[in-house]
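Fig. S4 source data, part A: sequence.
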Amino acid sequence: MSKASKTITGYSLPMWVTAVAMAALRCLRGESFVSPVSVQLPQETTPHLLPVQQAAPLGANSALAMGRCQPGDHLDLTRDLPIWVLAERVPREGGDPVLQLLPGAGIGVHADSGRICASSFALDLLHQNLEPLLPPQAAVRLTLIFPTGARLAKRTSNRAFGVVDGLALLGMGPRVQPSAAPDQLAAARQRLARSVDARPHDPVVLVLGANGWDLARRHGLPEAALVKVGNWIGPLLVEAGERRCRQVLLWGYHGKLLKLAGGIFHTHHHVADGRAAVLTAFAALEGLTGSELEQLHSAATVEAALNHLRHHDPGLSSRLETRLLTEAEQQARAYVARHSEHVPEVGIVVFDGHRQVRGAGPHGQHLLSALQQPSLDSGSP
């Protein structure tokens, strides 16, 4: 233990889940509860110590451990997220894996398969640290549980990417790397520069969020045009202008991109979250009043608000969404014009929680049609 690093917070969700799972598995083996738990990273010799709250046996063949995610100073949705792991010893049968990971309450699963939604980093980390602890001649079933995961998932766009029932076990590394962090902006600028240099006369597609990438490809957008970005929409639009990019398509979940209609160009919800105000302001301009306007403002999500309006007044709903997207495109060009001499054509395409294109601004529809043409000449001026 003397070689282990100091106990610190700021680790990603997979690290905390692994620590709690290790505590549960050790309790199942009959070991005394010890905190912090030593988590080993691939290709590292020094372990990392993460505190776990408690672990206790529930009988001869099961144990439960509990902990909380501590992402450090970062403004992260998973702060203080309760994590429970139920470890159960089960008979080892021929075709079954010795370590079985099951999604419990609050864990996000893929809607089409029902399988746990977890990054490869998370799965590799769990297997590396848990397999050496498995009891001999037996298999272990680990049920991961986020007691508040289902509620928190409503504040995400998980469902837009086919993830239901809770929070996905995501994370590409041991440390929290929020999309609002400055180093994420630097990385996105580098990706944009490479794309523009490789395709100087073609549109660039700024894809909001990692999961939007797959959805963009499914809609026929060429992978060479895609640039994955975080929440730094304004600075990246300016970067595109400075690099003389002629056309930029913004592709993302409508809850984020509608913020642009209100002049919000850093879309992380901890920085600015004026979605309800933007939505109701433009709805009022389209003639919505009274209790209907109040209901729109108090809706849990943008999608819920728009779906309610679409059901009760399809005509007004269509006008409102068209107006929002048109305004968002105009605001985006105006933003670039304030910071750059070269202003690209900016289009917006938004999709909803059912993984369907919800709408497109006038320029967005034009750019989407051009990008989906298989004969698009990447060398044309």
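Fig. S4 source data, part B ends here. The CA atoms of residues 4 and 329 lie 52 Å apart.
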